[in-house]
Amino acid sequence: MRVANSTEYRDTRYLESEEMKISSLTISVFCHETEDLDKIKTSIEDLFPSVKEADVRLEKVKGHFGNYITLLEYKFGKSSASTIFEEIVSKISSTDMIVIVTTLSTRMDKSKLYLRFDKQYLVGRKEITLKEGNDVVRVIVSFNEPFKEVTKELKQIASNRALHKETGTAKLS
User: Fold this and answer.
1) InterPro entries, per this entry (predicted)?
2) What's the CATH number for 6-164?
3) How many other CB atoms sit within 10 Å of the CB of residue 122?
4) pLDDT tens-digit map of 105-157
């Protein structure tokens, strides 16, 4: 059983204050023929239990070289988007949170935040880490507030993480 550390608790409490107004969230991943779709689904569902409440879409498409690719997509509406976002934020390392905050101008378009996490790392280690490029799990978060407000709130979360890291707060497992 995993116990949330004080950093995670404070971050989650911050999100629960309803200062961040999230209108929707989408998690999507491409699964190639050589990959095990069930293993990818299970990894995502184990890491983020709330995905079981999402509207799930599976679409099989033909790739450039004639191979089949399955698009797995989880969609969350307003009522459940905040919950899944809290789960995602609680799993992001303090280092990755700092990277997200320092690169927000390239990760946001109007009121949408675009994140990419390493698919192989998620499946193999049941953890998330940022990754650029392909072979990723994509997360798109739509906010009901302007870029400036979202930036401010994400910086606060990153700051809380950095503060706890400096004071030596250990992660409990």
Assistant:
1) PAB1135-like, Ribosomal_uL5_dom_sf
2) 3.30.1440.10
3) 23
4) 899 988 899 999 999 999 999 999 999 988 999 999 999 988 788 888 888 88
Alpha-carbon separation of residue 154 from 61, 99, 114, 161 (angstroms): 36, 11, 13, 11
Question: Can you give the residue ranges of every domain in the chain?
Answer: 6-164
Q: Please state, in angstroms and rounded to a whole number, the distance separating the CA atoms of residues 167 and 11.
A: 16
User: What is the separation of C-alpha 53 from the centre of its chain, rounded to a whole number of angstroms?
Assistant: 16
What is the tens place of the pLDDT at every residue in 33-61? 999 999 999 999 999 999 988 999 999 99
